[in-house]
């Protein structure tokens, strides 16, 4: 109707005006390259890192993080903890509507949290399982009552667990293919493995901060093809630029680069006690694991495999996290490694097998490590496996060592608890240390940053000798973009936030 | 003839059943668990167990198979485990991409293959023949992947004439559609062109030796006319049959080509589905491809009979 009237007016106002109006109505579009196709577009069921890019543009969360990973207001304007740390009160933003016209209020928050906790197959349940109940304490105020204090909860609400879905739409069975949230961009269409298209949500509460009419996500798995698209002008921005391609981007006068150390790490998990581990497996002895780690020169690995762009690591907390522990990364010490092996009663050469994903980068890392530990008397076989099989074997304990990683979470708990706690769901080596468990649990129960830092420091230092995982490096988040793109900043969580971003004509 | 077609179609039913059982069995042999593959980082064992139950992955395999085949007969191929989209609508959206790519690639292959084959046959054992043979051999040997990347670098990155990847449906914009498919069709077509060229050459050489060609030449007919009108028409028979069979090979090539150019077609879908252990999608696609193969083989036989009446029993 509205369109028809505009057309009528322009038709009447002559050719000149027609041209002008066509100009002013030109759509502004941003095309963003992703490393893989996201899975289902339901924040409570979604699993992939790449889905989070889409949710960041489509769904507002209760709270968000800033560039320093500090929690900042989102759909909640302010919040407060009770003294016992068991009640979190949030005041909600007024005048927010969902993309289908539903009103955002305390009832909507209650609905969303309950859906995340009870929906079959919800992957958010474990992230916010400390929530016992949600109380609607006012039209625009909610109280989260917790079973136990949970320092990581607020941080969880900055991601998918805090995404607010339109309640009526979320009750329908096809929500995953027709998602409705309250973010600046709404779902328009999707072709699997080809594109996901979002369009501007006209009634967004903060509309003026967003400058595109349309956002198109294009999954292109091959990094070199992604780069070719960027250079050819078929993408405006891409995530996941390979370290080996950085020079190419820097050498292209039409392109710019943004890089930030991410939260994700790669490491080698030792199978200590999972599945069919031989009772006298040498990997049960922490001295053997430490020897393995000492034989690796992390700086050289970074230079050889990643052009020196990565950050050598000895812990789960990246330097961008306030919980990063300043324990220097051990320098390579082959003699000490040999001595440790000898002390552990190992006859060299010790034969071990490392599982590696069958992609070129992981293979190269495997080969470099193979050469390094070889000099300490460890004969390392590399076993290539595609990702699905690797995960399966790692989970079942059908492996000795496995090269795998974690994309990282803003709160330290999300990067360590599940992997290191003896009952952790992702503890594939079955490492177990009661003292470490105690520290990890205590760090969950307090909101005091200094106390938490002290506890995590103890954990990190203990892991230097226990060595359940030989942390290798932190991956940077590297974005390539056209020079016309203005206002883009790389955040440590690696997501793309479009507020204030625009394309110069 | 009609009898043959009916008989073949009836025979197709057990074949398809066998294919579906094999696909089902094969994917159960694949290492890795679909739910775990989908879970990626988020591997909460409780959730995984719940999902396995939801998708009936813990049921005995025969039970799973009969449930699937029962629905398939009703035209319901289930739902993608990964995105919750119905498999039938996924297939319907991807099929046009691969069909169009295959047809264009075939045009490329026939254009290059037949013309080079004729030239090589006419100039048999000269340097022209050796050169075309060498080029053909290179065409067979060059990996799709490598050629694709090179073409992207040349035409998209340096010259910026063509898009590096992606796809625009023909219904949206014909020119853009052809632009997105030109390079992939070229890559896919060159591999087949070589095969077609070798067969055309062999077929032409045997025809050119025949008596009636000598007679035609003796009558003083012009060489090009002889070659194209008399010889080529007869040499064409085996090529027609071969072409229908080569469509099957195209599908194999399409898998790689679609990966390189990120074309959302059948090939890319099946590779991604296998890596993600999205069994519902793998089964659906293989079934449709198997039907396609059976139909193509039938078509090849029918064409052969039409061209070569002597074979009719």
Automatic annotation (TrEMBL), chain B:
Q: Where in the cell is it found?
A: Cell inner membrane; Cell membrane
Keyword entries, A-Z: Cell inner membrane, Cell membrane, Membrane, Transmembrane, Transmembrane helix, Transport
Task: Name the residues that span the membrane.
Answer: 103-122, 134-161, 181-199, 235-261, 281-307
Topology relative to the membrane:
Multi-pass membrane protein
Cross-referenced Pfam families, in alphabetical order?
BPD_transp_1 (PF00528), BPD_transp_1_N (PF19300)
Q: Which residues form the ABC transmembrane type-1 domain?
A: 95-300
By sequence similarity, the record places it as follows:
Belongs to the binding-protein-dependent transport system permease family. OppBC subfamily.
Q: Can you say what this protein is called?
A: Peptide ABC transporter
Which source organism? Pantoea rwandensis
């Amino acid at each position: 109707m509205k369109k028809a009237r505009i057309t009528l007016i322009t038709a009447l106002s002559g050719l000149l005006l027609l041209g002008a109006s066509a100009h002013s109505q030109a759509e502004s579009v941003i095309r963003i390259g992703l490393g893989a196709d996201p899975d289902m577009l339901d924040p409570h069921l979604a699993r992939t890192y790449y889905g989070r890019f889409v949710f960041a543009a489509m769904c507002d969360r209760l709270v968000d993080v800033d560039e320093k990973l500090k929690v900042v207001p989102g759909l909640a304007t302010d919040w407060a903890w009770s003294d016992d740390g068991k009640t979190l009160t949030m005041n909600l933003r007024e005048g927010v509507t969902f993309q289908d016209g539903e009103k955002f209020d305390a009832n909507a928050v209650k609905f969303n949290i309950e859906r995340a906790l009870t929906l079959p197959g919800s992957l958010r349940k474990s992230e916010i399982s400390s929530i016992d109940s949600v109380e609607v304490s006012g039209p625009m105020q909610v109280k989260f009552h917790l079973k136990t204090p949970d320092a990581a909860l607020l941080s969880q609400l900055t991601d998918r667990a805090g995404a607010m879905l339109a309640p009526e739409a979320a009750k329908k069975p096809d929500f995953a293919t027709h998602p409705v949230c309250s973010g600046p961009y709404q779902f328009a269409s999707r072709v699997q493995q080809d594109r996901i298209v979002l369009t501007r949500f006209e009634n967004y509460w903060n509309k003026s901060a967003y400058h595109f009419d349309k956002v198109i996500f294009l999954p292109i798995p091959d990094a070199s093809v992604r780069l070719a698209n960027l250079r050819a002008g078929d993408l405006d921005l891409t995530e996941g630029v390979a370290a080996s391609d950085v020079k190419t981007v820097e050498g292209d006068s039409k392109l710019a680069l943004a890089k930030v150390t991410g939260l994700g790490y790669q490491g080698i998990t030792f199978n200590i006690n999972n599945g069919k581990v031989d009772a006298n497996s040498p990997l049960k002895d922490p001295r053997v694991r430490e020897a393995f780690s000492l034989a690796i020169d992390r700086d050289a690995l970074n230079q050889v495999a990643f052009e020196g762009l990565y950050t050598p690591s000895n812990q789960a907390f990246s330097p961008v996290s306030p919980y990063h522990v300043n324990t220097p990364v051990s320098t390579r010490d082959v003699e000490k490694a040999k001595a440790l092996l000898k002390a552990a009663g190992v006859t060299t050469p010790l034969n071990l097998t490392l599982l590696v994903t069958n992609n070129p980068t992981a293979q190269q890392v495997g080969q470099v490590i193979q050469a390094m530990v070889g000099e300490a008397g460890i004969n390392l076989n590399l076993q290539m496996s595609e990702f699905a099989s690797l995960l399966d074997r790692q989970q079942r304990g059908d492996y000795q060592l496995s090269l795998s990683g974690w994309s990282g979470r803003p709160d330290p708990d999300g990067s360590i608890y599940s992997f290191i706690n003896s009952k952790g769901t992702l503890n594939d080596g079955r490492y177990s240390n009661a003292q470490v468990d105690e520290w990890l649990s205590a760090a969950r129960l307090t909101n005091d940053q200094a106390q938490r830092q002290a506890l995590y420091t103890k954990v990190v230092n203990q892991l230097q000798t226990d060595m359940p995982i030989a942390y290798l490096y932190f991956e940077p988040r590297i974005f390539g973009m056209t020079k016309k793109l203005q206002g883009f900043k790389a955040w440590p969580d690696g997501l793309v936030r479009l507020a204030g971003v625009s394309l110069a004509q | 003839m009609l009898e043959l077609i009916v008989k073949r179609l009836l025979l197709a039913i057990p074949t398809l059943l066998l294919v579906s059982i094999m696909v089902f069995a094969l994917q159960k042999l694949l290492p890795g668990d679909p739910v775990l593959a989908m879970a990626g980082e988020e591997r909460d064992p409780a959730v995984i167990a719940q999902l396995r139950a939801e998708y009936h992955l813990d049921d005995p395999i025969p039970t799973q198979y009969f449930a699937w085949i029962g629905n398939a007969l009703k035209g319901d191929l289930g739902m993608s485990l990964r995105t919750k989209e119905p498999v039938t609508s996924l297939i319907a959206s991807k099929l046009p991409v691969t069909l169009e790519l295959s047809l264009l690639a075939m045009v490329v292959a026939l254009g290059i293959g037949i013309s080079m084959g004729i030239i090589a046959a006419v100039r048999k054992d000269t340097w022209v023949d050796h050169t075309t043979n060498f080029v053909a051999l290179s065409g067979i040997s060059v990996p799709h992947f490598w050629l694709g990347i090179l073409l992207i670098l040349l035409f998209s990155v340096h010259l910026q004439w063509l898009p590096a990847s992606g796809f625009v449906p023909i219904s949206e914009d014909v020119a853009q559609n052809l632009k997105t498919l030109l390079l992939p069709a070229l890559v896919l077509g060159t591999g087949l062109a070589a095969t077609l060229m070798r067969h055309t050459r062999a077929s032409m050489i045997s025809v050119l030796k025949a008596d009636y060609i000598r007679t035609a030449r003796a009558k003083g007919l012009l060489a090009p006319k002889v070659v194209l009108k008399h010889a080529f028409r007869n040499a064409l028979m085996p090529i027609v049959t071969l072409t229908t069979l080569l469509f099957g090979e195209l599908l194999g090539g399409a898998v790689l080509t679609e990966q390189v150019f990120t074309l959302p077609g059948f090939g890319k879908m099946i590779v991604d589905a296998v890596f993600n252990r999205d069994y519902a999608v793998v089964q659906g696609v293989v079934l449709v491809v198997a039907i396609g193969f059976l139909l193509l083989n039938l078509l090849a036989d029918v064409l052969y009979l039409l061209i070569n009446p002597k074979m009719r029993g």
